[in-house]
Specification:
Oligomer: single chain
Strand content: over 45%
Number of helices: 2
Shape: globular
Number of domains: 1
Strand order of the largest sheet: 3-4-5-10
Structural class: mainly beta
Largest sheet: 4 strands, antiparallel
Helix content: 10-25%
Distance between the termini: 35 Å
Length: 156
């Protein structure tokens, strides 16, 4: 399943980010500040880095909804990832969420954690962004949102 618009694989199987980072440069001014800071850091995509999401494990995925009387208000998605070093937790917070899709049922070895392989942010239209996250064993998460924040905390 290839849901990436700018990240691609070469014929030898290497994942390439050159088009992706060039694209992010063109939309940087349109991004919320925390999204630009997070998404434009190359080490967030590296195979080995203190801040990479590569090989992180999904710890939790929570959806929070607000209601104003009988009308639905905004939604927030909190995604918590255990860094591959197991020494820190990466919290991604998506606000003013417009949609979320996922496939979190692994295609094989259901009792083992799934490694995050690659992730991509893109702008769908002015002020609306998409984050697609692919894990191994055919698992994925897709979030469409307007606001974004993140934190990296030591694991207890």
């Amino acid at each position: 399943m290839n849901q990436f618009k700018y990240i691609y694989q070469r014929h030898d199987g290497a994942t390439c980010f050159d088009r992706y980072f060039a694209y992010l440069g063109t939309i940087q001014q349109d991004m919320p500040p925390a999204l630009a800071l997070f998404s434009m850091e190359p080490d967030r995509y590296a195979l080995n880095s203190d801040v990479t999401l590569h090989d992180a494990w999904l710890e939790s995925l929570n959806v929070e909804k607000e209601y104003a009387g009988t009308a639905q208000g905004s939604s927030t998605v909190n995604l918590r990832l255990l860094h591959s070093s197991h020494e820190s937790v990466i919290n991604l917070v998506y606000t003013d969420v417009l949609g979320m899709n996922s496939s979190l049922q692994p295609s094989q070895r259901p009792l083992q954690p799934a490694d995050l392989l690659v992730h991509e942010f893109c702008m769908l239209e002015a002020g609306i962004f998409r984050h697609f996250i692919e894990f191994d064993r055919e698992m994925w998460v897709e979030i469409t949102f307007r606001g974004f924040d993140f934190s990296v905390l030591p694991r207890h």
